């Protein structure tokens, strides 16, 4: 009798220990530890651990360790990776998400936050989840994109005429640069520094952290804060992984994902300010005539509106 009780007690302890085994959660990104996505992933993991101590073992994989952005998005949809924090690759899931490739859509980070809070974030979240097998945990910031070059400061649209610029993104972004008289060039990001040194391109467009980590200020003269495109970051979970969580765990993931939004914006702004301050000793930094660029590129919006409507653009304009 005692032996049976001891055996039963032992099995109960074993089952309890097994149940307490933390769930491994990998959060992968295609960008480095210098990018906002890394800080967002770390913050999310920290806050979930505070709410559900010991239930998860978070492992952060920045810098494309688990694959390039497109592979990470495929992986989270297929359920072979638990979570990703990615950016512009998500916009390719649906043409309506191409809103974020439209030029000079937002005036400032504060404008972005107002538009997101007034319904844009929820609309984007629903759209992604309807088009992909993922759960959108949070929408944060990858950052505004600017232009760095060796030819001249960019203050007004005419300053870009004839400039060879390495760009990324889809047809909207390429069309924007072409409409301003620039010559878009497709160069691998890892080869852009050398392309600048050798004169293959005059410059490139990217977020500040991208310029900073590649030390592009060492081979370029001007950094124009064009803010021509704002790209969100998307913290997403595999639907199959998310569905395996308990109701309490799902609730905490969703709540934490939303709770860290404001802090994520503040952290992204602080990172950009820090990198910019470090770069200013090596390169001339200038602002641009924002209304002039907005007016010059507004015709680009028409093809987007014809294909996707203007309800999201109206949300952005209402928050301007």
Structural descriptors:
320 residues; receptor; five-stranded mixed sheet; D-Maltodextrin-Binding Protein, domain 2; signal; 18% strand; transport; 13 helices; 11 strands
What does this structure look like?
Strand 1 (23-28), helix 2 and strand 2 (56-61) form a beta-alpha-beta unit. This protein folds into 2 domains: 2-100 and 107-142 and 233-271, Bacterial extracellular solute-binding protein, family 7 (D-Maltodextrin-Binding Protein, domain 2, 3-Layer(aba) Sandwich); 144-229 and 277-318, D-Maltodextrin-Binding Protein, domain 2, CATH 3.40.190.170. Residues 1-18 have low confidence and may be disordered. Helix 4 runs antiparallel to helix 13 (311-318). It is of the alpha/beta class. Helix content is 47%, strand content 18%. The protein is built from 13 helices and 11 strands. The strands form 2 sheets. The chain has a 6-stranded mixed beta sheet. The protein has a 5-stranded mixed beta sheet with strand order 2-1-3-10-4, sandwiched between helices. The protein has helices at 2-19, 36-51, 69-78, 109-131, 171-179, 192-197, 208-213, 239-244, 247-259, 261-279, 290-297, 301-308, 311-318, and strands at residues 23-28, 56-61, 83-86, 134-139, 143-149, 164-166, 183-185, 203-207, 222-231, 234-238, 284-287.
**What is the class of the largest domain in the CATH system?**
Alpha Beta
Task: Characterize the main sheet.
Answer: 6 strands, mixed
Query: How would you write the strand order of the largest sheet?
Result: 7-6-8-5-9-11
Beta-strand content bin = 15-25%
Overall helicity: 40-55%
Total number of distinct structural domains: 2
Question: Which descriptor suits the 3D outline?
Answer: globular
Listing every helix as H and every strand as E from the N terminus to the C terminus, the arrangement reads HEHEHEHEEEHEHEHEEHHHEHHH
Please give the CATH architecture of the largest domain.
Answer: 3-Layer(aba) Sandwich
End-to-end CA span:
76 Å
Overall mean pLDDT: 92
Oligomer class: single chain
- Give the low-confidence spans: 1-18
Q: How many H/I helices?
A: 13
Radius of gyration: 22 Å
CATH superfamily of the largest domain: Bacterial extracellular solute-binding protein, family 7
**Remind me, CATH topology of the largest domain?**
D-Maltodextrin-Binding Protein, domain 2
> How many beta-strand segments?
11
Helix-and-strand structural type: alpha/beta
InterPro entries: DctP_fam (IPR018389), TRAP_DctP (IPR004682), TRAP_DctP_sf (IPR038404)
Protein name: Tripartite ATP-independent transporter solute receptor, DctP family
GO cellular component, one term: outer membrane-bounded periplasmic space
Family: Belongs to the bacterial solute-binding protein 7 family.
